[in-house]
Amino acid sequence: MAVPASMVAPRVEVSLDKIEENARVVVEMCRRSGIGVAGVTKVTCGDPEVARAMLRGGVRWIADSRLANLTRMRKAGISCETLLLRAPMLGEADEAVTVADMSLISSVETARALGEAARARGVQHRVILMVDVGDLREGVPVDAALDVAGRMARVEGIRLHGIGTNVACYGGVMPTRENMSVLLRLRDRARRDLGIDLEVISGGNSSSIPLVRTGEVPHGINQLRIGESMLLGRDVTYRRPLPGMHLDAFVFAAQAIEVARKPSVPRGEIGQDAFGKVRTFRDKGIRWRAILACGRQDIDPEGLRPLESGIDVLGASSDHLILDVEDADREIRVGDEVRFTMSYGCLLAAMTSPYVHKVVTGR
Ligand SMILES: *Cc1c(COP(=O)(O)O)cnc(C)c1O
């Protein structure tokens, strides 16, 4: 018997209408501060329908860290201006200038490779120089930024179009008025000392949304690159829900393959689990447990939040997700589905897993 597409499991249900509405809220909030929004699609592997929903919601650019994703979107007819968020590898320069209008880069070598590729293709390509204001992922140190900007500006075939920064990714450094103002001072010095007009000042990612809400983003920051907040409706520093946003634009669903009463503490000598961790257990007696047909190859169990109360995620191995369903409001039986919202990391895993079906609803 064929299973209708809406019932295949495990699956991620994607609501394009909710993504569009979330995008509209973010875009409007940013517009009031003079900020244009780049919608970041990487967590969806560059899903063209998600990109279209973001564009309907008013984002000005589509941005992704992977060329394969930008290529996928171009092939599907996404024709807006695009940003490549991660510097291309040297051998990818040709693809980069073909599918992206702008690249965020931090090495002069990359600028040269892009310049050469753009000249060979006869296309325009712009670069945004990434500056590290403390988070220690990509970017040149602040005191080297002007020197690098000057060298990039002399590379033939590309245009140095702006500067940007990224925080709250590796080091967890929070965006502040102060660390964003560093970019504005660099912009001013580039104009004064080098005669370079940096048009785009790209202030950060979803972690900057709280500052946008309180009007604290310094005047002059004119671009933010937003993925998580728009897709999951949360402020990413404390993962609090953002007002007026949908938290369930993406829902994960999986099916129970075993439901049984079992003790809450394993029997036998305890060593490492399948992933090298030694776990501890609280004895809650004999409980109803359900096993869902999905696992770490598809999701991050810590990032799953059941949509119904009384269900706890106990853990997962590669292919089995174990739930405590003792206090669930309904009786869960083999064949029943349980649905969850997801953290960013969990969504990333689910969208990337070839075993998880993607079921898109809305326009
Ligand atoms: C992923 C990424 C973003 C978007 O981050 P979110 O937290 O999803 O908003 C922005 N900028 C860069 C450089 C990125 O790699």
Question: How many distinct beta strands?
Answer: 17
- Average per-residue pLDDT, rounded, comes to 95
Globular, elongated, flat, extended or rod-shaped: what is the shape? elongated
Number of helices: 10
| Oligomerization category of the chains in this entry | single chain
SSE topology string: EHEHEHEHEHEEHEHEHEHEEEEEEHE
Instruction: Pick out the low-confidence regions.
Output: none
Helix share, percent? 25-40%
Q: Per DSSP, what share of the residues sits in E-state strands of 2 or more residues? A: 15-25%
Which value, in Å, is the CA radius of gyration?
A: 23 Å
How would you sum up the major sheet?
Answer: 9 strands, parallel
* Class by alpha and beta content: alpha/beta
Distance between the termini: 28 Å
The ligands bound in this entry are:
pyridoxal-5'-phosphate
Concise summary:
Helix content is 28%, strand content 24%.
How does this structure look, described?
This protein is an alpha/beta fold and 363 residues long. The chain is built from 10 helices and 17 strands. Strands 2, 3, 4, 5, 6, 7, 8, 9 and 10 form a 9-stranded parallel beta sheet that branches. Strands 1, 11, 12, 13, 14, 15, 16 and 17 form an 8-stranded mixed beta sheet that branches. Helix 4 (93-99) links the parallel strand 4 (82-84) and strand 5 (102-105). Helix 1 (16-31) packs across helix 2 and helix 4 (93-99) crosses helix 5. The structure holds pyridoxal-5'-phosphate. Pyridoxal-5'-phosphate (PLP) is lined by residues 40, 42, 65, 85, 104, 166, 205-206, 225-229, 236.
